[in-house]
Amino acid sequence: MSAPAPSPSAAVRAEPLPRQEEVLTDAALAFLAELHRRFSPRRAELLARRAARRAEIARTSALDFLPETAHIRADDSWRVAPAPAALEDRRVEITGPTDRKMTVNALNSGARVWLADFEDATAPTWENVVLGQLNLIDAYERRIDFTGPQGKSYALRPAEELATVVVRPRGWHLTERHLTVDGEPVPGALVDFGLYFFRNAQRLIDLGKGPYFYLPKTESHLEARLWNDVFVFAQDFLGIPQGTVRATVLIETITAAYEMEEILYELRDHASGLNAGRWDYLFSIVKNFRDGGAKFVLPDRNAVTMTAPFMRAYTELLVRTCHKRGAHAIGGMAAFIPSRRDEEVNRVAFEKVRADKDREARDGFDGSWVAHPDLVPVARACFDAVLGDAPHQKRRLREDVHVTAAELIAVDSLNAAPTFEGLRNAVQVGIRYIEAWLRGHGAVTIFNLMEDAATAEISRSQIWQWINAGVEFDHDGRTVRATAELTREVAAAELTAIRTEIGPEVFAAGRWQQAHDLLLTVALDEEYAEFLTLPAYELLS
Fold first, then answer.
1. Contact present, 420 and 475 (Cβ < 8 Å)
2. Which listed residue (90, 168, 199, 359) is catalytic?
3. How far apart are CA 127 and CA 149, in angstroms?
4. What are phi and psi of 511, to 5 degrees?
5. Which is catalytic among the residues 99, 278, 452, 460?
6. 140 to each of 116, 199, 308, how far by Cα in Å?
7. CA 352/CA 347 separation, integer angstroms
8. Catalytic residue list contains 168
């Protein structure tokens, strides 16, 4: 089946980039226009539905499994489609943006999968969006290389040694202002998916793989249904066999945690698995239950480990759900970035990573994420010890797991409280991350951890929650209350410390004041901003 004749295409509203014509062909832009006209109205309806559901949570301070979809959960007969060969073994996955160096290093890392990220690890400048697509094309055509500042050269290993690419497009809430159809900006999700699918689907099939995706920030099974309809249309449009697309859904919102089976059901012909995403999940809890009182107040983010009772309920339910339906269960991120100067820091961090990955493998996960190539062998050893030669452990149905609706939101089951140092860390990380994002960097090493947009979201959300809940801290032998004034003091001190740390000239060349001001805006405003990246995008060059 040949592609239909192109309709009037999307309009590009940006200065030309080198080689952009290899990505933004007339046919590709016409495809984006088709996607926009067919699916953007439903996207708008679903975003409105998010707001209505949030209002209901504000009224009830509760969530439950959906009664209207109980028949799907009760039907033991259905399964997702069998995994394609390239996604059968996913024991270690590396994540990162699609810049040229990361593309080479991630593909060469020894991980089974590379999550090529156009979402939280990418600041969506037009250059990052277009050149990231070009880097993936170059990788598939084996014409990509990279030479670092010190003259070190990077090139691809043999094809059989490369990671399988799984692309993460932007979430449904974001738009791409540089591409418009009928005068409207195209949803970023459709831009990222559409350009990648149109330019690479057949190429990937020829390489023995396929167009595979990670779907972020999904809040309901109806949003998964929209993605499934996008996949069906796209495959028909290009004459690609149905079921070629495969999608792994990040369960990183609290509402999606109550609809895991329904999400897999909606995507069952295209589903590959579910992933447990930590920071966005916590951000979603704060966002949805921010006015639910003291029992929903989270302690310092670093105190909320995956062994916290409500987090354990979430991950155990995810494994059981996936294996019941024949899908992969993929664990969370090991975000540590090894130090080249402090081996003791590395030793302690590697022990924590091993403990985390050992727990995931024992719990039944089929694989997990790392942020740095040095962690690939660490995580792989943990899963090798459990999996052996088996590609996964879907046979472990975890029928011992029984999670109630209340357990998923039992935040007060964790015996920990917010601290002043937690407030300081949220301010420090928030300012440092936002400044880098405004300069076009979405994956940033801060205090030896790889941070992305989810980090900034949980940081500013916790500040907002603690102030509005009137949290009190012990600080220098006295009790202090979390207030806007205290937060401004901490932020001003951090800005001064950064200026001293990097020097006045480097500081002046950055976007530190803007980052400081934006963090305080989204952390202190009475009206809680749904996503930090929405006002931040207005400041992005």
1. yes
2. 168
3. 21
4. -125, 45
5. 452
6. 13, 11, 41
7. 9
8. yes
